[in-house]
Structure formats: C-alpha cells, structure tokens
Amino acid sequence: MKEVLKQVRDYLMSGVSYMIPAVVVGGIFIAAALATGSPGESGMEVTNPFMENILLLGVAGFTMMVPILGGYIAYGIAGKPALVPGMIAGYVANSPIGESEVTAGFLGAIILGLFAGFVVKWIKTWKVPNILRPVMPIFIIPIVSVSIVGLTYLYLLAQPMGMMMTSMTEGLLGMTDGSLVLLAIILGFMIAFDMGGPVNKVACLFAFGLMAEGVYTIMGIIAIAICTPPLGMGLATLLNKKKYSAQEKEAGKAALAMGTIGITEGAIPFAAADPLRVIPSIMIGSATGAVIGALAVVNNYAPHGGPIVLPVIDNRLWYVIAIVVGTTVTALLVNALKKEKSNDLSNEEAA
C-alpha cells in the first residue's frame, strides 16, 4: 500500500511540476492587471487597454493550468500516448457541463488524469496486429481513451455532481437565519477545499446572491477566506524553505501575489502535490479568518476578495486582522504537518 501511495504521489508531482509555470505566468499577469483595476459589479474591473491584454495573457495561463495538470499526471503513468487524453480530461473537468454548468475543477482533473493514465496504460498492453502498431499512439489510443474517460465523466459523474452542488446551495440558504459563526466555518471550508472548483463556486455564488438582497457580511466572510490559502502557502514557503522544492518556492512567490488580489487558485500547486497535508491546513486557515470576519461583522461591497478590495470594506482593521490570522494559521499548520523536502525531485525536461 505504501508503494502504491508513493507511485500516486509521483504521478501527481509529474502533473504539478509542469503546471507550476502556467500558474506563475497566469497569476503574476492577472495580479498585475487587476492591481490597476477597481471594484465593480462583477469583481475587479480592468479598463486600461494595455492591462486588459496583460489580463488576457494571464487568463490564458490559468485556462491551461488544469488541462496541463491532468495531462502530465496521465503522462507520468503511461508516457506520451497519455498526454493528450489527460489534457482533454483536465479541460473537460474544468468546463461547465449541463444545465447546472457543473465543473469538477482541479480535483476532477486529478481524478480524470489518473483515470486517463491507467486507461492508456491498459490499452498499451493490448495485443494488436503488426499493421496497427504504428497508428496505436496517434489514432487508436487517443480515440479509445478519450471516449472511455470523457464519456464516463459526462454521462456518469457530471450530473450527480450538479445535483450535489444544488443541494449545497439549498443547504446554505437554509442556514442564513442560524449561527453566523457556523456558517462562516462552513463557507471557509468550502472556499478552500477545491480552490476555485465547484464547491468554492457554490459558496461564492451564494454570497453573490445575498449581495443582490443587500446582505454584504457573507461576501466579507468569503473575501477573507478566498485569499488566505494562497497567502498562507506563500508565507509557509518563506517560513521554512527546507520543506519545499525550488519550484514550490517560486510558486510561493506567485501565490503571494495571487492572494493579494483574491485568487485562491494560487494554492493549487501545493494542494495537488500534497493534498492530505495542504487541503486540511488551508481549510482551517480560511475558516479561522472567516469566523473572525463574521464576529466583527465585516461587510464587503464588491463581489471579490483579498486585500485589493480593502477600499470597499467596512471594519477594515478587522478585515486585515482576519486575513493575517487566517494566513498565519495556514502557514504554521501546513509547515507543522509537512516533512523536510529531500532534494529528489529534479526538474524534468519536456520529452
């Protein structure tokens, strides 16, 4: 069992190592663009034409991030023939599906990337006539593997996920008259759990809906929880450099920039590489900050988060305190759980 877990970790690290440059480029470009914007009805709005182009490039990096993760997880399992099936699986996992427009996010990309890799590995064991061998990696393997993985997700997994997301939203609506602290804990957990994925989106859309009704405290809670995962992971890489690879330290710098402008996805490289330690840590850190925001009745009048929306926050001092505490809790907890990094991860060259 220990050997199996090590293999899975190696597959995940294969995906993460190739994904990090896309995260860094996307995060830095988006952060630079949004830093020149101003809060609007749909979040931070960039109006400068040049910075709009910078934002476009950053969004392109983020759009590629999840497919790259899925593709190179599959690549780590079954080599080059698995690369495109894994990327397609990652793209589909991160795309809205059906009437409910459900997405599986980066966690879905991990699962589908593993699935694609093992499907391709299985297909490679098939005994085929010599005449078919030249077309196996460019024709048969991609078509068969994408059909199996993609259609399994689209027809068997996507709809149940959509129903689950709807149930979550209804459950949150039923809690608005209950304990604000309990609601803050749940929202903090949801925001950090999949870092921009479907669970995160349910919490955000819930807050957006309440803003339309003139309730801004929930958006204040969300704004705090959104930024503590990347800020916490960025701080963690600075506090204990021995526990992170060179690539993770670079990703930590990008995570700090992304956290500043409220992009939770900055924590994804860390969560993908070490989910059992990172995800609980960022969930607890986000929930801690969210509870402080709830107790202080922090109101946020922009549908966005992070320090960048400070000008439109009520009780700004408590907003900053909540972010600082949540960030610190995340960093200290994850570093307490992680072991020192043995320098065994070389920078792979693209094959």
Automatic annotation (TrEMBL):
It comes from Halalkalibacter alkaliphilus. GO terms for biological process: phosphoenolpyruvate-dependent sugar phosphotransferase system. It is a multi-pass membrane protein. Keywords: Cell membrane, Membrane, Phosphotransferase system, Sugar transport, Transmembrane, Transmembrane helix, Transport. The chain crosses the membrane at residues 12-34, 54-75, 104-123, 135-156, 171-193, 205-231, 278-297, 317-337. This is Fructose-specific PTS transporter subunit EIIC. Residues 8-347 form the PTS EIIC type-2 domain. It comes from the Bacteria. The lineage of its organism: Bacteria, Bacillati, Bacillota, Bacilli, Bacillales. GO terms for molecular function: carbohydrate:proton symporter activity; protein-N(PI)-phosphohistidine-sugar phosphotransferase activity; protein-phosphocysteine-sugar phosphotransferase activity. InterPro entries: Bacterial_PTS_Sugar_Transport (IPR050864), PTS_EIIC (IPR003352), PTS_EIIC_2 (IPR013014), PTS_IIC_fruc (IPR006327).
